[in-house]
Amino acid sequence: MTRYSWFKAAxxxxxxxxxxxxxxxxxxxxGIDSIAWLTLLALFEVETGLDRALRTSGAIGxxxxxxxxxxxxxxxxxxxxxxxxxxxxxxxxMLWIAVVVLLEWGVRRxxxxxxxxxxxxxxxxxxxxxxxxxxxxxxxxxxxxAAYDAALxxxxxxxxxMNVLEVVRRVAARPAPAGSEA
Length: 182
Known about the structure:
182 residues; mainly alpha; 0% strand
């Protein structure tokens, strides 16, 4: 196992611990949110990092279906944050949902992303910068665990983003089919 693989495993283990913390001491919305995000992260990792195991369309379809259910849970948790007037958590959820939409686009349409890589990278940079700013807001408010958790999720999803960009790079490096325009 490479150092990068160990790094990703350590990040995932820390996120599992954080999820346990939210399940034990957090609100229902925080628990649902954390489980759903952990599921999304794992499924993006499976599809982008371990894609050799997903050679069948049935396996990929299952990953996409489970990811859709997890995204629905994330949206429900975001609605809970809005209902409870937890504005910082709501803003965080909205930014993360936008990141997932962007990642889905990158995973499902790598050729389109390759053709518009500057736009994709710019959108990703804006979203991740917004999420990074929220880490500092939580620090400023003295919410140390929330800041740590947000920073950890940021690192975790940036590793997935790197996987997606590698897939996009491979697609962009492929020669165009005969008869197509560049």
